[in-house]
Amino acid sequence: MAPFFRKLRNSLITKLLISVAGIMLVCLCIWGYLNYQYLQQKAMDDLAVNMDRLSNTIRLGTHYAMMLNSRDDIQQIINNVARQNDIENVRIYNKAGEIKYSNRSEEVDRQTNIKAEACDICHNVDPPQVSVPLTERVRLLRSDQGYRMMGIISPVYNEPGCATDACHVHPADKRVLGALDLVVSLKDVDREAAVYQRNLILLAVGLFVGIAVMIVFIILRFVTAPVKRLIQGARCIESGDYGAAVQINQNDEMKALAQAINQMGQSIGEKTQALNRQRNQYQNLFGTVPCIITVQDRNYRIIEYNREFAERFKPQPGAFCYQAYKGRDTKCVVCPVEMTFEDGLPHYSEESALDKDGTMRHWIVRTSPIKDAEGNIVAAMEMNLDISERKQLEEKLVQSEKKYHAIFNNIPNPVFVLDPETWIILDCNASVDAVYGFQRGEVVGTSFLELFWERPDPVTAAGLKTATVIERAKHRDKDGLARFVTIRISPSAYGGVKVLLVTISDITKRLEAEQQLIQASKMATLGEMATGVAHELNQPLSVIKTASSFFMRKLRNKAPIAEDVLLTMSEEIDSHVQRATKIINHMRQFGRKSGPELVPVQVNDILRQAFDIFSQQLKVRGIEVEWEITSDLPMVMGDPGRLEQVFINLLINARDTIEEQMAAEPGHHRSHRIRLSTTRTDDRVVVSVCDTGTGIPDGIAERIFEPFFTTKKVGQGTGLGLSISYGIIKECNGRIYTRPNPQGGACFLIEFPIPPET
Predict the structure, then answer these.
(1) How far apart, in whole angstroms, are the C-alpha atoms of residue 432 and residue 409?
(2) What are the two backbone dihedrals, phi and then psi, of residue 631, each rounded to the nearest 5 degrees?
(3) What's the DSSP call for residue 468?
């Protein structure tokens, strides 16, 4: 029985019922009490109003008899009124407190104390009150039989008729002549109130019981039953049955709680599965990790180990670590496990020893403590990673680095290691001294950009990072002399840091040889130009000779010379002298030796300058020249003198091949033309020189730009013209190539890139 009451006492329904019932009982009691008090007070107030109305009726009923001083009529009226149920007493007091009229004859003419209960209402102050509110004129009495009574006293006021009447005169200054006292029994009222109170209590009890029953039903239906199912579902989750769902068919918080428990069970199940998988993975990792793992107690006895350790050492049960690892009888002098037990911290060490087969083995040893729930160290985990192969690789790497440094320092070309962001020289080889004259300590830590003849601006320096090869860069050596170099840049790693590896090729001597070769080619071209220059100078010399002969003849004959004739002939002499001077200066400028310098040039102007030298030669040989020039060509970057040399070489080749064609077909009336054209295509300017000569055979089209390759007879060509032209155009970042002329012969095309700002 006791367990039942204990269970009942600890039950949620009991707690809810007691709590709700207690609150409801208190609320019903307060409600009943307040309702009863309100209704009782209202009944008393209504009774007082009715009694006051009845008092006024009696007073008005006796008014006429009082005016006639008809005592019998007054008494009769009082007796008649007193016969009504519940009226206990009707009295009329005079101003002296004597009972003049009463339904009880024994009270008539009886003197009462003016301060008595009925009179004290008005006489509690001096002078007595004339007008008193109804609430103060009502009093409650207790009868001899014990039931309650209510009395109400109403003043009888002095009226003008009473003060002037001859029968009995009251002074006009007397406001109150007496009082009418009406006493009513409250027996029936109290009996009805008791019945109402009993009914109210019964109603409250009925409501309490009914609501309690409903609460019990609701709690059982909507709380206890779902809670039991929730408890059952929670126990299923506790037992590991995460798929058991709690079914609650009510759309309220219980259903939401059931869904939450179901979701929680599902989540716990998923996490449990994940934990199981993770545990299995950890067990597999522990067992299959490719390193040696052991767990040791304070006596260095192995209590757990992984598969690698088992397969490698085959330990006996209860073996000590130093026995299994190294075949020792005592622990190692420096033992990380011992230090871990002492301070509770992980420890690290590297160890080397001879393996069972006599080879030297190297290990990295790492230990960590294993603690219980109270934080006490109960074991130590030791992990050994075999780094024998890494040690061997490190030794090989050291040898490789020595070899690398040997190669790095003995490369005949200067090599710089640069910071890719700041261009600071991090390292360099010994060849820097041979080329630049700087010792390693003099350049390391300085900027690579300081080696340039003119330090590049930030934009140009940023562009260098994306370049792979920089041709013909102009550097400065320690003595301040210019060095032309080819720079090759490649990203690399140096000491684990990203760097730029810059290799320098000194091309100063090669460029000097090229300059000499180009100058020799110019001299050869000047020889080719001699005939044309002679023709060009012959005409102005003839004009000067004619003018001077005319002047001498006139002077010998002492004949006068007209001023206009003298002026005209002087102007002719001056213009032809200027023409001859221009030709001579052109040849002198063409033959001058100059270094490569790219500047903005207009190819139309250079093409015309080159043609001017050969115009007479071509005209004499009967070679026509067609021009197709685009007038608004943009400027391109090039060396004017060298470009003129390229155009002269192409004109000489066109002249020679047309002469070969003439010699091969004598008497043939085929037209002999050279077509010079310039145009723009997209981002390039194209210059073409086409001839109607013998053309270029297919077998040698790919070799015509090779040095010393020529199709001319011995003594007629060196084979350097097109090769030098190819190099000059390449210096201008252009392209020269050939293709057949549809009209017979060959076309040489030169493409120049248009600078971005053009």
Answers:
(1) 10
(2) -75, -30
(3) S
> 254-271 burial, b if ≥16 CB within 10 A, otherwise e?
beeebeebbeebeeeeee
Measure Cα distances from 316 to 64, 501, 510, 561, 709 in Å. 137, 58, 78, 139, 86
Let me know: does 102 contact 82? Beta carbons within 8 Å. Answer: no
Residue 475 to residue 480: CA distance in whole angstroms: 9
Hey, what amino acid is at 282? Y
Closest CA to 642 of 681, 680, 614, 603: 603
Is the omega angle on the peptide bond into residue 226 within 30 degrees of 0, that is, cis?
Answer: no
Measure the CA–CA gap between 27 and 438, rounded to whole angstroms.
Answer: 106
Residue type, 581: T
CA distance 88 to 140: 13
- How far is 613 from 535, CA to CA, in rounded Å? 10
Write down the residue that tokens 């007595």 correspond to.
128
Distance CA 658, CA 652 (A): 10
> How crowded is residue 313: how many other Cβ atoms within 10 Å of its Cβ?
20
CB-based contacts of 284: which residues, under 8 Å, 6+ apart? none
List average pLDDT for each run of 10 residues in the chain, which is 758 residues long: 64 74 82 82 83 83 77 83 84 82 83 61 60 79 85 79 52 73 85 84 84 81 80 82 78 79 82 82 73 86 84 81 77 84 87 69 85 87 82 77 73 87 87 86 88 80 77 84 86 80 81 59 55 57 68 76 72 67 59 64 88 75 88 88 82 84 70 89 90 80 62 51 76 87 88 81
Residue 515 and residue 484: Cα distance in Å, rounded? 13
CA within 13 Å, CB half, 740: 7
Q: Which residues contact 174 (CB under 8 A, 6 or more apart)?
A: 95, 158
The burial of 94, by beta-carbon neighbours within 10 Å (0-12 exposed, 13-18 middle, 19 or more buried), is given as: middle
Cβ distance 428 to 504 under 8 Å? Answer: no
Among left, alpha and beta (phi > 0; psi -120 to 50; other), residue 741 is beta
**Three-class secondary structure of residue 147 per DSSP:** coil
Burial label for 426, CB within 10 Å (0-12, 13-18, 19+), is middle
Reported as type and span, the H/E element at residue 310 is helix 307-313
Q: What is the pLDDT of residue 676?
A: 92
- The helix (H) or strand (E) run that includes residue 198 is helix 187-218
pLDDT score for 517: 58
pLDDT at site 751: 93
Torsion angle of the four alpha carbons 28, 31, 37, 38, in this order, in degrees rounded to the nearest 10: -150
Gap between the Cα atoms of 64 and 46, Å rounded = 28
Token digits of residue 577: 């002298």
Q: Which residues pair with 152 in a beta bridge?
A: 138, 182
Tokens (6 digits) for 496: 């684990």
- What are the structure tokens assigned to 267, written together? 């989540």
Distance, in Å, from the CA atom of 576 to the CA atom of 570, rounded to the nearest integer, reads 10
Q: Would you say 502 and 415 are in contact if contact means Cβ atoms under 8 Å apart?
A: yes
Torsion angle of alpha carbons 65, 69, 75, 80, nearest 10°?
Answer: -10
The secondary structure of residue 247, as a DSSP letter, is: P
Residue among 293, 256, 431 at smallest CA distance from 368: 293
Which of 740, 736, 553 is closest to 643 using CA atoms? 736
